[in-house]
Amino acid sequence: MSRAEQGRRTRAEIISTAARLVHKDGFRATSLNDIIKELGLTKGALLHHFNTKLILGYAIVDEYLYPYVHDRWVNPVEASDDPIGTMCDTLETIFSAYDIEDINLGCPITNLATEMSPLDEGFRIRLQKIYDVEIESLTKALLKGQKGGVVRPDVDVGDVAYLFVSFVSGSRSVAKNAKSKDALMRPTHAFIEYLKSLRV
User: Fold this and answer.
1) Residues 43 and 116 in one domain
2) How does pLDDT run along the chain (200 residues), one tens digit per residue?
3) Helical ranges in 40-181 per DSSP H
Protein backbone atom coordinates (compact mmCIF):
# COMPACT_ATOMS: atom_id res chain seq x y z
CA MET A 1 0.00 0.00 0.00
CA SER A 2 1.36 3.42 -0.94
CA ARG A 3 1.85 6.18 1.62
CA ALA A 4 -0.98 8.16 0.02
CA GLU A 5 -3.35 5.19 0.21
CA GLN A 6 -2.38 4.57 3.83
CA GLY A 7 -3.00 8.24 4.57
CA ARG A 8 -6.47 8.11 3.03
CA ARG A 9 -7.28 4.96 4.97
CA THR A 10 -6.09 6.48 8.24
CA ARG A 11 -8.10 9.63 7.62
CA ALA A 12 -11.25 7.58 6.93
CA GLU A 13 -10.70 5.50 10.09
CA ILE A 14 -10.30 8.66 12.17
CA ILE A 15 -13.54 10.10 10.79
CA SER A 16 -15.58 6.92 11.23
CA THR A 17 -14.29 6.34 14.76
CA ALA A 18 -14.86 9.96 15.72
CA ALA A 19 -18.39 9.81 14.25
CA ARG A 20 -19.19 6.73 16.33
CA LEU A 21 -17.90 8.31 19.55
CA VAL A 22 -19.67 11.60 18.87
CA HIS A 23 -22.91 9.72 18.18
CA LYS A 24 -22.54 7.98 21.54
CA ASP A 25 -21.29 10.80 23.75
CA GLY A 26 -21.88 14.06 21.86
CA PHE A 27 -19.39 16.34 20.13
CA ARG A 28 -18.44 18.47 23.12
CA ALA A 29 -17.95 15.47 25.42
CA THR A 30 -15.75 13.61 22.93
CA SER A 31 -12.12 14.67 23.13
CA LEU A 32 -9.30 14.16 20.66
CA ASN A 33 -7.67 11.99 23.33
CA ASP A 34 -10.75 9.74 23.34
CA ILE A 35 -10.40 9.27 19.59
CA ILE A 36 -6.64 8.69 19.81
CA LYS A 37 -7.13 6.08 22.52
CA GLU A 38 -9.85 4.30 20.55
CA LEU A 39 -7.72 4.15 17.39
CA GLY A 40 -4.35 3.50 19.04
CA LEU A 41 -2.81 6.43 17.17
CA THR A 42 -0.31 8.98 18.33
CA LYS A 43 -1.53 12.52 18.80
CA GLY A 44 0.79 13.62 16.03
CA ALA A 45 -0.76 11.15 13.61
CA LEU A 46 -4.24 12.49 14.29
CA LEU A 47 -3.16 16.13 14.15
CA HIS A 48 -1.47 15.45 10.81
CA HIS A 49 -4.96 14.92 9.35
CA PHE A 50 -7.02 17.22 11.60
CA ASN A 51 -5.23 19.95 13.46
CA THR A 52 -8.32 20.94 15.45
CA LYS A 53 -11.30 19.12 16.85
CA LEU A 54 -13.62 21.51 15.02
CA ILE A 55 -12.12 20.63 11.62
CA LEU A 56 -12.59 16.95 12.46
CA GLY A 57 -16.20 17.69 13.42
CA TYR A 58 -16.84 19.33 10.06
CA ALA A 59 -15.30 16.30 8.33
CA ILE A 60 -17.70 14.01 10.20
CA VAL A 61 -20.61 15.93 8.69
CA ASP A 62 -19.17 16.34 5.18
CA GLU A 63 -17.46 12.99 4.69
CA TYR A 64 -19.42 10.61 6.92
CA LEU A 65 -22.95 11.80 7.63
CA TYR A 66 -23.64 13.27 4.19
CA PRO A 67 -22.81 10.00 2.37
CA TYR A 68 -24.62 8.06 5.12
CA VAL A 69 -27.87 9.91 4.39
CA HIS A 70 -27.50 9.49 0.64
CA ASP A 71 -26.78 5.78 0.83
CA ARG A 72 -29.64 4.98 3.20
CA TRP A 73 -32.39 7.46 2.41
CA VAL A 74 -31.79 9.20 -0.92
CA ASN A 75 -30.20 6.81 -3.41
CA PRO A 76 -32.86 4.06 -3.18
CA VAL A 77 -35.66 6.57 -3.83
CA GLU A 78 -33.84 8.34 -6.66
CA ALA A 79 -33.31 5.01 -8.43
CA SER A 80 -36.92 3.87 -8.03
CA ASP A 81 -39.84 4.08 -10.44
CA ASP A 82 -42.13 3.83 -7.39
CA PRO A 83 -40.79 6.47 -4.99
CA ILE A 84 -43.66 6.15 -2.51
CA GLY A 85 -43.23 2.38 -2.30
CA THR A 86 -39.48 2.74 -1.89
CA MET A 87 -39.88 5.39 0.82
CA CYS A 88 -42.22 3.04 2.71
CA ASP A 89 -39.92 0.04 2.27
CA THR A 90 -36.87 2.04 3.33
CA LEU A 91 -38.55 3.29 6.50
CA GLU A 92 -39.76 -0.18 7.42
CA THR A 93 -36.45 -1.89 6.64
CA ILE A 94 -34.16 0.59 8.40
CA PHE A 95 -36.29 1.25 11.47
CA SER A 96 -37.23 -2.41 11.98
CA ALA A 97 -33.53 -3.32 12.09
CA TYR A 98 -32.77 -0.97 14.98
CA ASP A 99 -32.12 -2.58 18.34
CA ILE A 100 -32.60 -0.82 21.67
CA GLU A 101 -29.06 0.58 21.57
CA ASP A 102 -29.80 2.22 18.21
CA ILE A 103 -33.04 3.60 19.67
CA ASN A 104 -31.31 5.02 22.72
CA LEU A 105 -28.55 6.65 20.67
CA GLY A 106 -31.01 8.47 18.39
CA CYS A 107 -30.31 9.97 14.99
CA PRO A 108 -26.67 11.08 14.64
CA ILE A 109 -27.62 14.03 12.45
CA THR A 110 -30.42 15.23 14.72
CA ASN A 111 -28.24 14.82 17.80
CA LEU A 112 -25.46 16.88 16.27
CA ALA A 113 -27.86 19.52 14.95
CA THR A 114 -29.49 19.87 18.36
CA GLU A 115 -26.15 20.10 20.15
CA MET A 116 -24.00 22.16 17.79
CA SER A 117 -26.14 24.19 15.37
CA PRO A 118 -27.04 26.78 18.05
CA LEU A 119 -23.35 27.11 18.94
CA ASP A 120 -21.45 27.01 15.66
CA GLU A 121 -22.52 28.34 12.27
CA GLY A 122 -20.14 26.03 10.44
CA PHE A 123 -21.93 23.02 11.86
CA ARG A 124 -25.36 24.53 11.21
CA ILE A 125 -24.63 25.26 7.55
CA ARG A 126 -23.18 21.81 6.91
CA LEU A 127 -26.05 20.01 8.61
CA GLN A 128 -28.59 22.16 6.79
CA LYS A 129 -26.98 21.11 3.52
CA ILE A 130 -27.75 17.48 4.38
CA TYR A 131 -31.40 18.30 5.03
CA ASP A 132 -31.67 20.52 1.95
CA VAL A 133 -30.11 18.01 -0.44
CA GLU A 134 -32.26 15.20 0.95
CA ILE A 135 -35.44 17.26 0.54
CA GLU A 136 -34.46 18.34 -2.97
CA SER A 137 -33.64 14.78 -4.04
CA LEU A 138 -36.86 13.34 -2.64
CA THR A 139 -38.85 16.14 -4.26
CA LYS A 140 -37.36 15.33 -7.67
CA ALA A 141 -38.01 11.62 -7.19
CA LEU A 142 -41.64 12.24 -6.24
CA LEU A 143 -42.08 14.61 -9.17
CA LYS A 144 -40.74 11.87 -11.45
CA GLY A 145 -43.31 9.59 -9.84
CA GLN A 146 -46.08 12.04 -10.69
CA LYS A 147 -44.93 12.22 -14.29
CA GLY A 148 -44.81 8.42 -14.35
CA GLY A 149 -48.35 8.20 -13.08
CA VAL A 150 -47.60 6.49 -9.76
CA VAL A 151 -47.93 9.50 -7.44
CA ARG A 152 -51.22 11.40 -7.20
CA PRO A 153 -51.12 14.58 -9.30
CA ASP A 154 -52.67 16.69 -6.53
CA VAL A 155 -49.83 15.94 -4.09
CA ASP A 156 -47.44 18.79 -3.23
CA VAL A 157 -44.26 16.76 -3.60
CA GLY A 158 -42.09 19.39 -1.93
CA ASP A 159 -44.23 19.30 1.18
CA VAL A 160 -44.12 15.50 1.27
CA ALA A 161 -40.32 15.47 0.92
CA TYR A 162 -40.02 17.99 3.75
CA LEU A 163 -42.43 15.96 5.88
CA PHE A 164 -40.51 12.74 5.25
CA VAL A 165 -37.20 14.24 6.38
CA SER A 166 -38.85 15.81 9.42
CA PHE A 167 -40.54 12.53 10.32
CA VAL A 168 -37.30 10.52 10.16
CA SER A 169 -35.57 13.04 12.39
CA GLY A 170 -38.39 13.66 14.83
CA SER A 171 -39.57 10.08 15.25
CA ARG A 172 -36.12 8.94 16.29
CA SER A 173 -35.94 11.71 18.88
CA VAL A 174 -39.29 10.68 20.37
CA ALA A 175 -38.22 7.03 20.51
CA LYS A 176 -34.86 8.00 22.03
CA ASN A 177 -36.55 9.90 24.82
CA ALA A 178 -39.03 7.07 25.42
CA LYS A 179 -36.28 4.40 25.22
CA SER A 180 -38.79 2.34 23.30
CA LYS A 181 -38.80 0.69 19.89
CA ASP A 182 -42.60 0.69 20.00
CA ALA A 183 -42.45 4.48 20.20
CA LEU A 184 -40.61 4.41 16.89
CA MET A 185 -42.55 1.73 15.03
CA ARG A 186 -46.11 2.79 15.89
CA PRO A 187 -45.82 6.25 14.29
CA THR A 188 -43.72 4.77 11.49
CA HIS A 189 -46.49 2.36 10.49
CA ALA A 190 -49.03 5.18 10.66
CA PHE A 191 -46.80 7.36 8.49
CA ILE A 192 -46.31 4.55 5.99
CA GLU A 193 -50.09 4.27 5.63
CA TYR A 194 -50.22 8.01 4.95
CA LEU A 195 -47.51 7.71 2.30
CA LYS A 196 -49.37 4.84 0.62
CA SER A 197 -52.41 7.10 0.33
CA LEU A 198 -50.38 9.36 -1.98
CA ARG A 199 -50.15 6.69 -4.66
CA VAL A 200 -52.41 6.75 -7.68
Assistant:
1) no
2) 787 788 789 999 999 999 999 999 999 999 999 999 999 988 888 998 999 999 999 999 999 999 999 999 999 999 999 999 999 999 999 999 999 999 999 999 999 999 999 999 999 999 999 999 999 999 999 999 999 999 999 999 999 999 999 999 999 999 999 999 999 999 999 999 999 999 99
3) 43-49, 53-59, 66-69, 75-78, 83-97, 100-105, 108-116, 121-147, 157-178
Q: Crossing angle of helices 83-97/121-147, nearest 10°? A: 130
Q: Determine the structural domain holding residue 22 and report its residue range.
A: 1-51
- Give yes or no: residues 145 and 179 share one domain: yes
